[in-house]
Amino acid sequence: MLSDVVDKKKPIEELEGDRWPDPPPDSTNLVRTVHALRRRPIKDLNAHDLRRLIGQDIGLQWLMPVALDFLRETAPRESTTGWYDDDLLTAALTRKASLWRSRPEFARHLDETVRTLTDLSPYVQREVENFRSLVSDLL
To answer: Which of 8, 40, 84, 92 is packed most tightly, with the most Cβ within 10 A?
Structure first.
């Protein structure tokens, strides 16, 4: 599993060695949430939390392996229902090329997982096609 090398007992801020100051009082809910999630141990983050952080490109070095393993574990269960439309999947698929170039094993892992899914929504299918065209030379 990709995430076996991640110390999930630690929060992102500890793994990064960068403690952010508290957000200003007039911060948006997203900013306050991201700050709080960076302080939570990775093992305590759920799929929604992962999606929020990954969607903001926070802690990708540690969160992408966790998210990709989660997607791999849940894909067989989800594909039996005939429909898989997941915000975490979309967050993973839409990361910048620089992530996939620096970690091609992440791209291959995600592509293999997506290949097990059936009946993706048209929106997610477009994201899959965009992802595959972005990383075609890595697959």
So the answer is: 92
Report the alpha-carbon distance of residue 123 to residue 28 in Å, rounded: 27
Do the Cβ atoms of 69 and 3 come closer than 8 Å? yes
Task: Give per-residue pLDDT as tens, 10-29.
Answer: 999 999 999 999 999 999 99
- With H, G, I as helix, E, B as strand and everything else as coil, classify residue 41: strand
Q: Could you read off the pLDDT of 91-103 as tens digits, one per residue?
A: 999 999 999 999 9
> How far apart (Å, rounded) are the C-alpha atoms in residues 42 and 71?
16
